[in-house]
Amino acid sequence: MRNSRLTYQNFIGQEDIVARLKAFTELFNASGSTPGPVLLIGEEGMGKASLAIAVANERDVGFQEVDAASLEIVCDFTMLMTNLKPKQILLLSNIHLLRKIHFKGFREIIQDGKLSMLIGQGPAMRRHTMDLVPFTLVATCPRKMDCPTEFLREFSLILSLEPYSVLELQPLVESIGKTEGISLDAGAASLISRSCDGRPGNIESTLRRVSRAINKSTLTEEDVLQAFKAFGINVRLDTPKNLLDNLQDLSGQDFEKLIESLLTRMGFQTEMTKTTGDGGIDIIARFDKPIFGGLYLFQCKRFSPDNLVGAPIVRDFYGAVTADRAVKGILITTSDFTAQAREFAQRVGVELIEITQLQQLFLEYGLTTKMEE
User: Fold this and answer.
1) Could you give the CA distance from residue 301 to residue 8 in angstroms, rounded to a whole number?
2) Among residues 330, 337, 369, 341, which one has the least CA distance to residue 354?
3) In the chain, which ranges are continuous DSSP H helix?
4) By three-state DSSP, how is residue 218 classified?
5) What is the pLDDT of residue 371?
6) Which side of the chain, N or C, has fewer Cβ within a 10 Å radius?
7) pTM (global) more than 0.85
């Protein structure tokens, strides 16, 4: 359902994304033309639909949301395109699920504003081309690499949403709770925000589950803890100062998943490799930002405190980074590095992250080492 009150000004979080959308739409408003197509990248629940609604409200135009997977046959696509209202926002969710038969049509519409269709059968079949009303396509997908390359270049603006911090989520918890008729004390709001994995879309369902289980319209911190315990949700009230012991309790793969969560919160689009845990490249990540954007490779070493990472491991990792032409290789360990390893890494440009730096990153981005269910 469209929220008619949602605007750039009252949108919580994603400040950089909102600023870029505002500048983008203001450019077209000044010229009197319709904004070009926009691609919003982010996992489910990150607020992509809410951003598209904010754009529609700012421009005071119509809004329609369609899941790309629902466009099964050509008639579905044709009916959608021929029933658009002038200047409206069309939110096409999950564009990576769009069937191949529709890609050509969408590209033609974006490039020329025209829709071609075949009418009739057999010898009487003919191609009919019609002009469509100007509209703005806002498409979404989980990762940039999910969108076909030939379609990717058609977007005027590509934006990657970043996971929300706990501080950004907390006012959203309170606001959504108010809408749902649920009031929360500060402790309850904080706990729910910590359980949402940086995604605003998880708030509403979590609130409803807790409220239904406790059977109260006013929730305290104790209420939420009781419900979370029953649900099997583990949320730490505070991040421990010393994470080393906890890290050693994780399996190698769980440690890599934890690092992947950290990278996602830092703005990377990540993918764990199939050969994870074998000493090769564990995580492939892309950073879609100016100057520092590109491919990054990560290797994770879960060693005990007295087992330092030596130069041979760094040298082998550097070879893989060079072969894949990555912007940078980052080697992360739960222990530390030998002097020779650090010297070699500095010479070739490999970044090394040891336990103390890792602890600081966890604290900065609000992560714990306990894998939440």
Assistant:
1) 43
2) 337
3) 15-31, 48-59, 74-82, 100-112, 149-152, 166-179, 186-194, 203-214, 221-231, 244-249, 252-265, 311-323, 339-348, 355-364
4) strand
5) 42
6) N
7) no
Amino acid identity of residue 371, one-letter, is M
- With 0-12 / 13-18 / 19 or more C-beta atoms within 10 angstroms meaning exposed / middle / buried, residue 100 is exposed
CA distances from 267 to 42, 63, 107, 143, 264 (A): 10, 28, 29, 11, 5
If you search the block for the tokens 């009781």, which residue do you land on?
Answer: 226
How does pLDDT run across 52-103, given as a tens digit for each residue?
999 999 999 999 999 988 888 878 888 888 888 999 999 999 998 888 878 7
The token pair at 125 is 């079949």
Residues of the chain short of pLDDT 50, as ranges, are 238-244, 277-278, 370-373
From the CB of residue 304, how many other CB atoms can be counted at a distance below 10 Å? 10
Please give the structure tokens belonging to residue 285.
Answer: 């990540």
Tokens of 372: 């939440």
Cα(118)–Cα(128) distance, integer angstroms: 6
Residues 6+ apart with CB under 8 A from 201: 44, 45, 46, 47
What number of helices (H) and strands (E) belong to the chain? Answer: 14, 14
Question: Which DSSP helix (H) or strand (E) runs through 123?
Answer: none
Place of tokens 């979370």: 228
